[in-house]
Design brief:
Blueprint (H helix, E strand, L loop, with lengths): L1 H18 L7 H20 L21 H15 L9 H13 L36 H17 L3 H7 L2 H20 L8 H4 L2 H10 L4 H15 L3 H14 L7 H5 L15 H9 L7 H7 L13 H7 L4 H21 L4 H14 L13 H4 L5 H9 L5 H9 L10 H24 L6
Helix pairs in contact: 1-2, 1-3, 2-19, 3-9, 4-5, 4-6, 5-11, 7-10, 10-11, 11-13, 15-16, 16-17, 19-21
Length: about 450
């Protein structure tokens, strides 16, 4: 009954959100609604366990067992409710459509900028909202192929450019549904309760980011989960193939390769299975073969470049005396150290992936709300309270969209973000202290 009431409360939030004629004209109300939905989501997660989740895998709750089908039905209801919303919290879908249209016209998105005069004929009523008009493509070739295919299909039944943008949400929503299936299988493979799917399925983040806005991050998340699923069954070649597909969508999954390769104390464990990545990368690169170093340098801007909703990156930049290039190198070094640490410690893959992804997000200069969807599936296995809270309060970061919509200016880092980060860091410190105390209080083994 508790979960039914919480599901109804969450659905009421999405119904109210759907009632807004335009999210851009009701941004303050939208942020408040998403923040409120996050509170009900946290309560739902709390009730899954009979104590605050912590080290390392949650203990089953004594609460009434929640049937998986009801979790999925509620999750589908949430998603269907927000589906009619037009992308408003981000202009990224406009960029997806432009890149798809460019490829359909014979252009290479890795060599072309939206402002390039030779492609001016592609400009239409949706062009003013295309983001990054002075930059070439930074998405991986898998996403570029999806954009091309989506445009070819959508343009056959919808002529209006702005309405075409709406249908670019379809791939994101489809891959999100696949995530639900893959995560359910992975939980079963790891011997965990099926109800833990709710950690992802009921989170407002994928509901809003994938179904209301249409961000493409669901693609690489799915393939990361498929890689973990294959690894759980000791099918390592398939695991590396799936991880290669994830990296062909966006670059960050490449940092997970060392975890999958493993280390036995002397040498790599799976030193040859990862070679399957090479032909996969080559296959996806063939349609776009070009000099992509400029694109790659720009893509690293999310680590150190434009600042948005960053946290620990500010400390790195301060330590670098404001030198952005030194801050970028330092941030990459910290991420590399995290990868090396979890690999050498031989952590379970899900735990290691959570640590690496969290390090990426905490030390990057740019942390959009939808980036936190990368964390969500791993929280079903290691539900750290701080990270669950982070996913719930991150809608505060959309405060920057208000100025962007009104004035066309990006405000950069806002002081409002600390209302989210201070509680998150406080919980991280609390978790570290209590975990350390638990370890010290364990009785020593008697020989």
């Amino acid at each position: 009954m508790k979960f039914l009431l919480l599901a109804c409360a969450l659905e009421a939030h999405y119904v109210l959100l759907r009632s807004f004629a335009s999210l851009q004209s009701r941004l303050v109300e939208t942020i408040i609604l998403l923040f409120s939905a996050g509170i009900f989501y946290l309560i739902s997660c709390w009730l899954l366990w009979d104590r605050p989740p912590g080290l390392p895998v949650p203990r089953p709750s004594d609460a009434p067992c929640l049937r998986l089908r009801w979790i999925i039905l509620a999750a589908l209801a949430f998603r269907i409710t927000v589906w009619p919303l037009y992308p408003a919290l981000s202009d990224d879908p406009f960029r997806y459509r432009w890149e798809g249209k460019l490829q359909s016209a014979g252009g290479n998105p890795y060599e072309t900028r939206p402002r390039d005069p030779e492609w001016a004929r592609l400009r239409d009523s949706a062009f003013p909202q295309v983001v990054g008009k002075d930059f070439k493509a930074v998405y991986g070739p898998l996403l570029e192929l999806i954009e091309r295919g989506t445009y070819v299909v959508v343009s056959r039944f919808e002529a209006d450019p702005r309405r075409q943008v709406f249908w670019f949400k379809v791939p994101s929503a489809f891959f999100d549904l696949c995530i639900l299936a893959a995560l359910s299988l992975l939980l079963k493979a790891r011997g965990l309760r099926a109800e833990l799917l709710m950690v992802y399925a009921w989170s407002p983040l994928p509901i809003v980011e994938f179904w209301a806005t249409g961000h493409n991050d669901s693609v690489e998340i799915l393939f990361v989960l498929l890689a973990l699923l294959a690894a759980s069954r000791n099918r390592w070649t398939w695991a590396f193939a799936a991880l290669s597909m994830a990296t062909a969508a966006k670059l960050w999954p490449a940092l997970l390769f060392p975890l999958f390769i493993g280390w036995n104390g002397k040498w790599p464990v799976r030193w040859y299975q990862w070679w399957v990545a090479l032909p996969i990368f080559a296959l996806f690169a063939l349609p776009y073969w070009t000099n992509i170093w400029e694109n790659a340098r720009f893509a690293t801007g999310f680590v150190s470049g434009w600042r948005n909703n960053d946290s620990l990156y500010g400390a790195v930049l301060w330590a670098a005396n404001g030198d952005a290039y030194l801050a970028k190198k330092t941030a990459f070094a910290i991420m590399a150290a995290a990868v090396a640490a979890v690999t050498l410690l031989r952590w379970p893959l899900e735990k290691g992936a959570l640590a690496v992804i969290a390090t990426i997000l905490l030390f990057s200069s740019n942390c959009h709300p939808w980036y936190l969807t990368w964390l969500l599936p791993m929280l079903a296995f290691y539900p750290l309270p701080a990270f669950l809270l982070w996913t719930a309060v991150v809608p505060l970061a959309y405060e920057s969209v208000i100025r962007w919509t009104a004035l066309g200016e990006w405000a950069g880092p806002s002081e409002l973000r600390w209302y989210a980060y201070v509680p998150v860091f406080a919980l991280l410190v609390w978790h570290a202290v209590t975990a350390g105390a638990q370890i010290r209080s364990r009785p020593s083994a008697v020989e």
